[in-house]
């Protein structure tokens, strides 16, 4: 999640043009909105949000089935809506009537796959593309920048629903033996992403130092990136040994645990930067204001959108993740 929310450097505030309305619920903030002074209170807000959201997410992950698919669908739909609002702030009119429902439906379709099977068939991807292009004929026409509208619509579908669907792929990994094992495996990238976010934020606030990429995310520091990765490696090592093996009967070689934690941490930080980049183009500080003081859904899951597919790719490498009884056999 975006660390630059607490230390964003913006232009001096200017009064909005007469008649401009930006106060609707969920509306994006204007480019020159006064920076919020969150300071040390940002950590408290993050923890408070986690205390409220974590039990819901944990229940859905453990329950699986309809609760998990429903939560992923809701988050994907709202996330797509936020991305399309940012696109409109950039002057692009995506086709929301197609993008939001398809984004929400993608995790539901993935949930219906049998265990060990994950991936959208080419025919389904072609159907989404053809549907979007067809609707663009009437919804945008020749003067409505149809190429931009279709491109951003498909981006919203893939960025939200497509990436969140990897949660189902991880929970239904081919080596997962039961529901408890699937939940334990899915919790691995979820907890590592949270550890990366908190570790990076705390280290960045305490140490400070050079900025990582000030043109994209002014508040993110090199020290925070390193600190987040260190906390992620520690959390991964403990989780695999103390939870994943006894609960899911799954193990990784020590080098694989290290690689998994480092790569997932890097992926999460890149996901954070990507969402900041999109907000920079749109000229907004938050993806929306659904959560007062916290921004929008994309502000909360930006790192997870990259961590989930990267975690799935690593876990899908032959020999990377093994059933515990296999370890040590010739």
**Low-confidence segments, ≥5 residues, pLDDT <50?**
3-38, 326-330
Output the strand order for the largest sheet: 1-2
How many strands, which pairing sense, and closed or not: the largest β-sheet?
2 strands, antiparallel
Gyration radius (Cα, Å) is 20 Å
Structural class: mainly alpha
What value does the average pLDDT take?
A: 86
Shape: globular
Oligomer description: single chain
Estimate what percentage of residues fall within beta strands.
Answer: under 5%
Proportion of helical residues? 55-70%
What is the domain total for the residues?
1
Question: What's the total count of β strands?
Answer: 4
**Count of individual helical segments:** 10
Order of helices and strands: HHHHHHHEEHEHHE
Distance between the termini: 43 Å
Summarize the structure.
With 330 residues, the chain is mainly alpha-helical. The chain has helices at 41-63, 65-89, 96-111, 122-139, 146-164, 166-171, 179-207, 222-248, 254-282, 297-315, and strands spanning 211-213, 217-221, 250-251, 322-323. Mean pLDDT is 86; it is low at 3-38 and 326-330.
Q: How does this structure look, described?
A:
- It is a single chain.
- With 330 residues, the protein is mostly helical.
- The radius of gyration is 20 Å and the shape is globular.
- The strands form two sheets. Strands 1-2 form a two-stranded antiparallel ribbon. It has a two-stranded antiparallel ribbon with strand order 3-4.
- The chain has ten helices and four strands, in the order αααααααββαβααβ.
- Mean pLDDT is 86; it is low at 3-38 and 326-330.
- The protein has helices at residues 41-63, 65-89, 96-111, 122-139, 146-164, 166-171, 179-207, 222-248, 254-282, 297-315; strands at residues 211-213, 217-221, 250-251, 322-323.
- Helix 2 (65-89) runs antiparallel to helix 5 (146-164) and helix 7 (179-207) packs across helix 10 (297-315).
- The chain has one domain.
């Amino acid at each position: 999640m975006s660390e630059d929310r607490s230390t964003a450097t913006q232009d001096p505030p200017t009064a909005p043009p007469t008649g401009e309305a930006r106060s609707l619920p969920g509306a994006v903030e204007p480019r020159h909105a006064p920076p919020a002074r969150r300071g040390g209170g940002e950590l408290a807000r993050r923890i408070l949000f986690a205390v409220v959201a974590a039990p819901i997410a944990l229940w859905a992950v453990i329950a699986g089935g309809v609760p998990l698919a429903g939560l992923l669908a809701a988050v994907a739909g709202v996330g797509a809506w936020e991305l399309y609002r940012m696109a409109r702030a950039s002057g692009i009119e995506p086709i929301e009537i197609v993008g939001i429902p398809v984004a929400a439906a993608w995790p539901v379709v993935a949930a219906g796959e049998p265990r060990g099977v994950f991936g959208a068939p080419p025919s389904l991807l072609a159907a989404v593309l053809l549907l979007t292009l067809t609707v663009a004929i009437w919804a945008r026409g020749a003067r409505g920048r149809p190429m931009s509208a279709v491109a951003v619509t498909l981006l919203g579908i893939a960025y939200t629903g497509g990436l969140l669907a990897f949660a189902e792929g991880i929970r239904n990994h081919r080596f997962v033996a039961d529901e408890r094992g699937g939940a334990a495996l899915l919790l691995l990238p979820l907890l590592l992403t949270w550890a990366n976010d908190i570790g990076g934020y705390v280290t960045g606030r305490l140490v400070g130092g050079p900025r990582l990429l000030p043109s994209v995310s002014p508040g993110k520091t090199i020290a925070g990136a390193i600190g987040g990765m260190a906390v992620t490696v520690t959390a991964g090592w403990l989780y695999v040994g103390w939870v994943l093996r006894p609960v899911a009967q799954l193990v990784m070689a020590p080098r694989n645990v290290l690689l998994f934690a480092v790569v997932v941490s890097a992926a999460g930080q890149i996901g954070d930067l990507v969402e900041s980049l999109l907000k920079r183009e749109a000229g907004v500080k938050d993806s929306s204001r659904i959560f007062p003081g916290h921004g929008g859904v994309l502000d909360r899951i930006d790192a997870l959108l990259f961590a989930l597919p990267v975690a799935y790719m690593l876990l899908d490498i032959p020999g990377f993740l093994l059933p515990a009884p296999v370890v040590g056999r010739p």
